[in-house]
Specification:
binds guanosine-5'-monophosphate; single chain; 5 strands; alpha+beta; globular; about 20% helix; 2 helices; HIT family, subunit A
């Protein structure tokens, strides 16, 4: 079954799309953790970083180039931002389709809680 993000890519469910090219899409997270919270997703449905192969190197690079562009467009390139990729259970990955979280627009605090 297609992931929820593939369904967004296919316009089967709505999202606030802020970026799209031939390999990657960016849209606002439905439950934002910061004033700017964008998910940057490869159009190829790769479940997690554990599943990437050398064939995916180009699209993985494209995710970061898109992140740079989106950060500029969202006005947070200078103030700063965080890119985050959850992988697997202990990281709390909810959606099994690789996505880079782009977070910014406020001081984000320490990288991790120590809990
Ligand atoms: P994860 O925990 O897998 O790294 O993050 C999944 C993210 O996807 C969460 O931040 C969650 O709010 C977001 N999300 C889940 N379902 C949807 C959806 O249908 N639309 C959008 N825009 N974001 C979603």
């Amino acid at each position: 079954m297609a992931s929820i993000f593939t369904r967004i890519i296919n316009r089967e469910i709505p999202a606030e799309i802020v970026y799209e090219d031939d390999q990657v899409i960016g849209f606002k997270d439905i439950n934002p953790h910061a004033p700017v919270h964008i998910l940057i997703v490869p159009k190829k449905e790769i479940p997690s970083i554990n599943d990437v192969t050398s064939e995916d190197e180009a699209v993985l690079g494209r995710l970061l180039v898109a992140a740079q562009q989106i950060a500029k467009e969202q006005g947070i390139a200078e103030s700063g931002y965080r890119l985050l990729v959850n992988t697997g259970h202990d990281a709390g990955q909810e959606v099994q389709h690789i996505h880079v979280h782009l977070l910014g627009g406020r001081r984000l605090g320490p990288m991790l809680s120590r809990g």
